[in-house]
Design brief:
179 residues, alpha/beta, 4-stranded mixed sheet, 37% helix
Length: 179
C-alpha cells in the first residue's frame, strides 16, 4: 500500500511518521494482496486541536475518515479505528455477497434437479471485468491466497485470457484457449 503524508502548521517527528505508517499499513491485510491501493493522510494542527483526514483508494473501494483530538498519536488511533471498521464492513459485505450468490446457485441447482430436464435454463447475472496481466505462477499464488475456485487472468507471456482453477486434490489446472 502506498501511503502519502501531508502536514500543515507543524513539523512532524520521525517517530510520529513511523507510528502512523505502522498503524495504517495494518489496513493492507484486509485489502486484496496484489491490488493497487493508495492512502492520502493529511495531518494539521490548529491551536491545540490535532486533525487527521485520511482517504483510502483501492480496487473498487473509496473510503475516507477524519478525527480531531488534543494529541496527534490519539488522533492517529481514532482514525485507524474508524477506517478499520469501514474496511472490515466492506470485506464482510463482499463475503456476504459471495455467500448469497453461492446459496442462490446451490438452490438453483437443486431446484433444477428436482424439476428434471423440463425446466428451461436462463442466465441470471453477468459480471464484466478487465483481466489483469500476470504470469502463471503469480496467478497460482493469487488463487492460493484467495478463497475462490478459479481466477481469470491475462497471461503475460501469451497475451491470451487464461483460467486457472483449483482441482479437488488441491492442485491447480490451467485453461489456455487457442484460436
Amino acid at each position: 500500500m502506498n501511503i502519502a503524508f501531508t502536514f500543515k502548521n507543524f513539523e512532524p517527528s520521525d517517530h510520529l511518521k513511523k507510528y502512523a505508517r505502522r498503524r495504517f499499513e495494518k489496513l493492507g491485510k484486509f485489502l486484496q494482496p496484489h491490488g493497487k491501493s493508495e492512502m492520502q493522510v493529511g495531518m494539521s494542527v490548529d491551536n491545540y486541536r490535532h486533525r487527521i483526514d485520511v482517504t483510502l483508494v483501492a480496487d473498487n473501494l473509496n473510503l475516507s475518515a477524519n478525527e480531531k483530538s488534543e494529541d496527534m498519536y490519539a488522533t492517529v488511533d481514532l482514525v485507524f479505528d474508524k477506517l478499520s471498521s469501514q474496511v472490515k464492513k466492506h470485506v464482510e459485505k463482499g463475503k456476504d455477497h459471495r455467500r448469497g450468490a453461492e446459496m442462490a446457485l446451490r438452490e438453483d441447482i437443486f431446484s433444477y434437479a428436482d424439476t428434471g430436464a423440463g425446466r428451461e435454463r436462463t442466465i441470471v447475472g453477468t459480471d464484466r471485468f478487465t483481466p489483469k496481466p500476470m504470469g502463471i505462477d503469480e496467478a497460482a499464488l493469487q488463487l492460493d491466497s484467495l478463497d475462490y475456485e478459479f481466477l481469470v487472468f491475462l497471461n503475460a507471456e501469451t497475451e491470451r485470457v487464461n483460467v486457472i482453477y483449483r482441482r479437488e486434490n488441491g492442485d491447480f489446472g490451467l485453461i489456455d484457449p487457442t484460436f
